[in-house]
Amino acid sequence: MKVQLLKIPSHLIVAGSSWLSKIIIAGVQLASISYLISILGEEKYAIFSLLTGLLVWCSAVDFGIGTGLQNYISECRAKNKSYDAYIKSALHLSFIAIIFFIALFYIFSGVISAKYLSSFHEVLQDKTRMLFFTSCLVFSSIGIGAIAYKILFAELVGWKANLLNALSYMIGMLGLLYIYYRGISVDIKLSLIVLYLPVGMISLCYIVYRYIKLYHVKTTKSHYIAILRRSSGFFLFTLLSIVVLQTDYMVISQRLTPADIVQYTVTMKIFGLVFFIYTAILQALWPICAELRVKQQWKKLNKMIGVNILLGSLYVVGCTIFIYLFKEQIFSVIAKDINYQ
């Protein structure tokens, strides 16, 4: 008698690994707060928090190439076609994109940082421009490196992306713990590099690995045009979402005290954990939805979207109520040296 094993849908496997990865990442970000406050002090940690707000802005450095490539891979898989040329074309374009943004950051870092960190001029003195530029470089490596994870998700092996992402944050946390327990004196710039540079470097190493494998693959002008055409829409959407969702850091940098900035940062990281968990499901479903669209299975696609919107809304509302009721206890655990009023 044959025993049939329960087959778990691939998107649930990816979502499960993504949950674990996101929990680890959010855990690292929350756990790092108390160590960073001890190392840097409240005022410098407030500056550190404002600089980490650049991470989302730097996610646009790939011009939407990663998401556009992910869709092409899903479509090619649905049609059993090779997508190697698309990957190689996307990597060429991403290299041009990062060079462009590095030059852009170098030119405008002085002007932007003078405004963005104007409340901390006395603390930073003449280090503002270089600190801002270094932060942009570190976070841009993460933005470009995300292309590697989008490739893996499109190939329905997103658990590998989740593993690499979680590992990179753990390496950064280990570096921070080494600094803390060894009593090494570090500034804001080095703290950023220690905690976040491994996140970008690991994904960039995977990109280099994939490019070497595709070295002999031929690309044509049509591949580049196709990637750019598809990516432009995603790039515009990314910019609009960043403007809507990330202007808060521009406001708090000018209006809040260091203590208030720390409180705001902790609150956002708590909600970040909530959204990470739900985003994990959406991230895993993306390539599946793309394949359903290509196959024109609209009924199944619409049902999947509707169910996830409903469950996601209930989940976010429930978590918000819980955080509001227990905010003081949660805050005292994460940043015990800061009073939550």
Number of strands: 0
The rounded distance between the terminal residues' Cα atoms is 65 Å
SS strand fraction: under 5%
Largest sheet: none
Compute the number of structural domains. Answer: 1
User: Number of helical runs?
Assistant: 13
The 3D shape can be described as globular
The run of helices and strands is HHHHHHHHHHHHH
* C-alpha-based Rg, rounded: 21 Å
Main traits of this protein?
13 helices; 341 residues
In brief, what are we looking at here?
The protein has 341 residues and is an all-alpha fold. The protein has helices spanning 10-40, 42-52, 54-57, 65-78, 84-116, 121-124, 128-154, 158-182, 188-213, 221-255, 258-294, 298-325, 327-334.
Walkthrough of the structure:
The protein has one domain (about 10-335). It is about 85% helix and about 0% strand. The protein is built from 13 helices and no strands. It has helices at about 10-40, 40-50, 55, 65-80, 85-115, 120-125, 130-155, 160-180, 190-215, 220-255, 260-295, 300-325, 325-335. α1 (about 10-40) runs antiparallel to α2 (about 40-50). The longest helix is centred in the last third of the chain and has 37 residues, at about 260-295.
